[in-house]
Amino acid sequence: DTEVTQTPKHLVMGMTNKKSLKCEQHMGHRAMYWYKQKAKKPPELMFVYSYEKLSINESVPSRFSPECPNSSLLNLHLHALQPEDSALYLCASSQDHEAESTYEQYFGPGTRLTVT
Amino acid sequence: AQSVTQLGSHVSVSEGALVLLRCNYSSSVPPYLFWYVQYPNQGLQLLLKYTTGATLVKGINGFEAEFKKSETSFHLTKPSAHMSDAAEYFCAVTLYSSASKIIFGSGTRLSIRP
Fold first, then answer.
1. What CA–CA distance (Å, rounded) separates B57 from A109?
2. pLDDT in tens, A37-96
3. How many CB atoms lie within 10 A of CB A10?
4. pLDDT tens-place string over residues B19-75
5. What is the distance of C-alpha A31 from the center of its chain?
6. Do the chains contact at B102 and A31, CB–CB below 8 Å?
7. CA angle A102–A104–A110, rounded 5-degree value
8. Which of A99, B43, B54, B73 is the most buried (most CB within 10 A)?
9. Residue B53 contacts by C-beta under 8 Å, 6 or more apart in sequence?
10. Separation CA B46–CA B61 (nearest Å)
11. Are strands B108-113 and B10-14 parallel, antiparallel or unpaired?
12. Distance CA B80, CA B109 (A)
């Protein structure tokens, strides 16, 4: 199984709402990622979890809060977002770099987020 | 620091024609190189990768790429385009020392003319 799943597929939220994005993988990968992708642009890295610990935070605003409850799950909690946060949010996973690995990341289908 | 440049934000070819998408990288150490494809409203799918060994790499859907160290290039080709190849293509690089961080190129949108 080389699948990364994400829910929901689409999300519309107001600027005062609190919502969460979910990501799941069952490939035994120990690194998981959140990316933000604006239209016609490449994905931008937001967070990296390695062995369930946050290892990289690319200076993301605190209104985005990641969580890794276990090695298969990754959440992104959203609060007080701005309209400019509207984008496609992609989750990815890979074998941790300490393993014998070719480092490719496997991506989920994404959550299309609209902030109104 | 490493970087990736994709020449041409939009490439249009006729169905059955050769597809050539260009990618050049900058890296002070041997890189790992990838091509990803993204269909509309979907995530990214790995097409192929180069790590070490054979410089001509074959991927899915009939695509291949050749790592040319002297030219710092990793161009993607397909002998005969199909309508289903229409998508956004991203070249990417990562290093062993920072394997968690992929550096993506700006992307090339491939259109196929009937």
1. 25
2. 999 899 999 999 988 999 888 899 999 999 999 989 999 999 999 999 999 999 999 887
3. 10
4. 999 999 988 777 889 999 999 888 999 999 998 888 999 999 999 999 999 999 999
5. 11
6. no
7. 165
8. B43
9. none
10. 11
11. parallel
12. 17
Q: Are A33 and A91 in contact (CB under 8 A)?
A: yes
Instruction: Give SS3 for B98.
Output: helix
* Token duo for residue B94: 């990562």
Q: Do A110 and B94 touch (CB under 8 A)?
A: no
| Dist CA A81 CA A101 (whole Å) | 36
b/e map of A51-69 (b: 16 or more CB within 10 Å)?
A: ebeeebeeebeeebebebe
Q: Which amino acid is at A11?
A: L
The alpha carbons of chain B give a radius of gyration, in whole angstroms, of 14
**Reduced to 3 states, what is the DSSP secondary structure of residue A35?**
strand
Q: In whole angstroms, what is the distance from residue A101 CA to residue A103 CA?
A: 5
A9, amino acid identity: K
DSSP-derived secondary structure for A23-66: EEE-S---EEEEEEE-TTS--EEEEEEETTEEEEE-S--TTEEE
Whether residues A45 and B102 touch (CB distance < 8 A) is answered with yes
Selecting from A6, A41, A103 the residue whose C-beta is nearest the C-beta of B99 gives A103
